[in-house]
Amino acid sequence: MVLDILLVFLGICFLLCGLVGCVLPVIPGPPLSYVALWLLQATRFGNFSLKFLIITAVITLVVTIIDYTLPAWATKRWGGSRAGVIGSILGLLLGLFFLPFGIVIGPFAGAVVGELIAGRDTKSAFRSGVGSFMGFLFGTAMKLTLSFVFLFYFIKEWIF
Question: Is the backbone peptide bond immediately before 100 cis, with ω within 30 degrees of 0?
Answer without folding.
Answer: yes
